[in-house]
Amino acid sequence: FLGTIESMEKAIKEEWDKLIPKDWNKYIDCMSYRLQKVKDQKGMQTEFWDFFNHCIVPFNLY
Description:
- The protein contains 3 helices and no strands.
- It has 62 residues and is an all-alpha fold.
- It starts with a helix and ends in a 22-residue tail after the last helix.
- One of its GO terms (molecular function) is nucleic acid binding.
């Protein structure tokens, strides 16, 4: 990242302000389900990650 700490802080705050809660609430809402799946898998990979490493929410939760 080029520039000063202040310019980095400004850029981060601008991006943070663009976040819309409804876009990520679904991940929070199913966290207990996802954590249980991780426990069931003994910490190994779950179905929540595709080959691009993007989080996937099971369709049957919504």
